[in-house]
Amino acid sequence: MTIATTSATSTGTTLDSINPATGEVVGSVSVSTPDEVRAAVAKARAAQPAWEALSLDERVEKLLSAGPALLDRADELGELLCREMGKPLAEATGEVRACASNWETELREIADALKPQVVEDEHTRSTVYRDPLGVCAAITPWNFPMLMPHWLLLPALIAGNTVVFKPSEETPLIGQAYADALSAVLPEDVLITVHGADEQGKALVASEVDLIVFTGSREVGKKIMAEAAGGLKRVLLELGGKDPLLVLEGADLDAAATFAARNAFRNAGQVCVSTERIYVSDKLHDDFVAKLRAESAKLVVGDGMAEGTAIGPMINAGQRDHVLRQINQAGTDGATVIVADGSEAPAGEGNFVRPTILTGVTHAMEVAMEESFGPVVTVTKVTTDDEAVVLANDTPYGLGAAVFGDPERAKRAARRIKAGMVGINKGLGGASGTPWVGMKQSGIGFHSGPEGHRQFAQVRVVSEAK
Ligand code: NAD
């Protein structure tokens, strides 16, 4: 995914955050100079030994009250998130609550995963430690502007790292609000927020950090990995996706169409695990498309603050134009363009795109291969389950997938799809404690769950004879 322009406007010293539904300025932050980014890293390094010297439990205790404080402000922060990023108010408030509600449980799960473990054999007793790496750079996107920082900052901090955090230039205010809630209870300089776009991101990656945790596009992920190679800095990259949905024989078509409409269009398709491609059995194709069309027509496009809005605006004009270009190109190349029959996109300054279904799509079309990150989904007929799996695997991405169909048949297909997370007759969400993980070019390393939390630490083994 490439973003041509940003809705945020920077004067060089000030970054204005723009409401993508109205074009109004929501608020401003000061842009950090590259020197200030490096100074922040130096301060975070100076603060790190004292933070590491605390026990895991002490670090948990320090952070405990930040979650309830966020929860108390869920309505206010939800409104800020909605106005800054565009998603419907209920989803925006839901995102704040998702971060804050299980706060203590999450902190204790992270600490448990990082506790030393004793491993013994006949001759040797070893202790496996998970020590901090040092200073962590955390760089996040705008599409879940509180949840993405939340997923990275808590394990980085509980592991004993200090963190320099750069939220997306599109959503600096909600990023700052989340970081402020943590900083309010942390010792000075354990978490420092810097603001800006790629210049500041580059400065942060090039500075004296030990670990870079990044969620964002595949293109920027590659640049970060290349830059990190010089210093062999650790990287944890959660990147883009082009998730397939397989609709096989035996599928409950109502359930599949409801899922597809929701998962292709929620957050205006600006979700890394959006359904972007659908492969449907030729026997089911026409019925499925009719149902998907009917489900999509129920989705009201509008300002996220307005009652009843299901789909807000796209984050900026560049992203809107990228999606419209893909749709137009697919139409020119022979796809049928079906714009959902529901509400018209509101007039005015907002970057609105109505939900769009493309049928007759082939893999010669860009829209089938490159991330759209917008409210558009492709539909391709297949004659066998094998063909569906081969096409599902035919992109560089491998984040998520879903298969609807007869359960045994769907399970067989699911095992063959090269994606980190696959749902059978449901979305991809795993049981609590399972990781959030991408395969292929959708990521390097992963987070969440005990194995994910451990990736924010350096594993060490100290052994003695018995
Ligand atoms: P992006 O890659 O354009 O930007 C992400 C962050 O990187 C921003 O803070 C940006 O300022 C910064 N940045 C840009 N250039 C940089 C550079 N050269 N060096 C360092 N930092 C730099 O992504 P985006 O548009 O903010 O977010 C959308 C992308 O994020 C999509 O591709 C989406 O799939 C992906 N995403 C992935 C996941 C996941 O869990 N895998 C979750 C959410 C979003």
Instruction: Report the CATH topology name of the largest domain.
Output: Aldehyde Dehydrogenase, Chain A, domain 1
- CATH homologous superfamily heading of the largest domain: Aldehyde Dehydrogenase, Chain A, domain 1
Rounded radius of gyration (Å): 23 Å
Write the CATH architecture name of the largest domain.
3-Layer(aba) Sandwich
Question: What is the share of helical residues?
Answer: 25-40%
How many β-strand runs? Answer: 19
Tell me about this structure.
The chain is α/β, with parallel strands linked by helices. The chain folds into 2 domains: 5-239 and 441-465, Aldehyde Dehydrogenase, Chain A, domain 1; 243-429, Aldehyde Dehydrogenase, Chain A, domain 2, CATH 3.40.309. It is 40% helix and 21% strand. It contains 17 helices and 19 strands. The chain has helices spanning 34-53, 56-63, 66-72, 74-85, 89-100, 103-114, 147-158, 172-183, 198-206, 218-229, 253-265, 285-297, 317-332, 366-369, 385-392, 407-416, 449-453, and strands spanning 9-10, 14-18, 25-30, 117-120, 124-132, 135-139, 162-166, 191-193, 211-215, 234-238, 243-247, 275-281, 336-339, 356-359, 376-382, 400-404, 421-424, 443-444, 457-465. The protein has a 7-stranded mixed sheet with strand order 13-14-15-12-11-16-17, sandwiched between helices. The protein has a 6-stranded mixed sheet with strand order 8-7-6-9-10-18, with helices on both faces. α2 packs antiparallel against α6 (103-114) and α11 crosses α12. The protein is globular and about 65 Å long. Mean pLDDT is 96; it is low at 1-7. Nicotinamide-adenine-dinucleotide binds at residues 1, 3, 139-143, 148, 166, 168-169, 197-198, 201-202, 205, 215-217, 220, 223-224, 238-241, 272, 371, 373, 399, 438, 443.
